Structures are given as structure tokens and as C-alpha cells.
Amino acid sequence: MVRVVVVAIVALVARVSGHPGPILDFEADDHHHEQEGDPGSAITGSYGWTSPEGVNFLVRYVADKNGYRVLESNAVPLNADGVYADGTQGSFTSYEDEK
Fold first, then answer.
1. What are the backbone dihedrals phi and psi of residue 33, each rounded to the nearest 5 degrees, phi first?
2. Neighbours of 68 (CB within 10 A)
3. What single-letter DSSP state applies at residue 84?
4. 63 within 8 A of 42, measured Cβ to Cβ
5. β-strand partners of 59
6. Which is it for strands 67-73 and 42-50: parallel, antiparallel or unpaired?
7. CA 66 – CA 68 distance, rounded (Å)
8. CA separation (Å) from 40 to 49, 83, 89, 93?
9. Which PROSITE patterns match (predicted)?
10. Who's near 5: CB < 8 A, 6+ residues apart?
């Protein structure tokens, strides 16, 4: 009986530890930041803030094997090349790639 209980507990811990979930959940008066996923694999999140003028800003992002990408933002809707922040803009390349 004890062996069955131990096996059940070990199986439950293995299942819970392998399941992506909340990583960060922070909220204050004028800003917030939330992340969930599997660290080292794929993270999705959002952060936002209220400017001193009362304007609310939001950034939704993903960080995965393809790098960090903004999916949606009213803070920086276009990059310098005129590409919208929709997750298809790609990630920055590493200086190591240039060698």
C-alpha cells in the first residue's frame, strides 16, 4: 500500500513539474507584468504601464527558439523599417553569426 502511494505521488510531481505554467505575475498601481510557459523553451507574456499623462500602454510578446518577438503593442507599433509588431518581424541576429 505504501509503495502505491509513493508511486502515485512521484507520478503527480513529475506531471506537475513538466507542465508549463505561470512564471511571473506582478501588478502594481501603474504597471503589470505576466509570463507563462516553459523556461528555456517558450515563454509568452505581457506587460503594461500607465504614462504620467494617463495613457495605457501594452506589449504582448513571445520568447522561444526563434527569439523574442513582440506580438502586439500600442507602445511601439512600427520598427525603424516600418514593420508592424505582429510576431512575424523576426528576432535580432547575434554578432557571433557574422563571424
1. -150, 130
2. 11
3. B
4. yes
5. 47, 73
6. unpaired
7. 7
8. 26, 27, 21, 18
9. CHIT_BIND_RR_1, CHIT_BIND_RR_2
10. none
Amino acid identity for residue 15 in this structure: R
Q: How far apart are CA 43 and CA 5, in angstroms?
A: 34
Cell of 43: 515563454
**pLDDT digits 0-9 by tens, 8-52:** 454 444 444 555 688 888 899 999 999 999 888 899 999 999 988
Distance CA 63, CA 41 (A): 8
Kindly report whether the global pTM for this prediction surpasses the value 0.85.
no
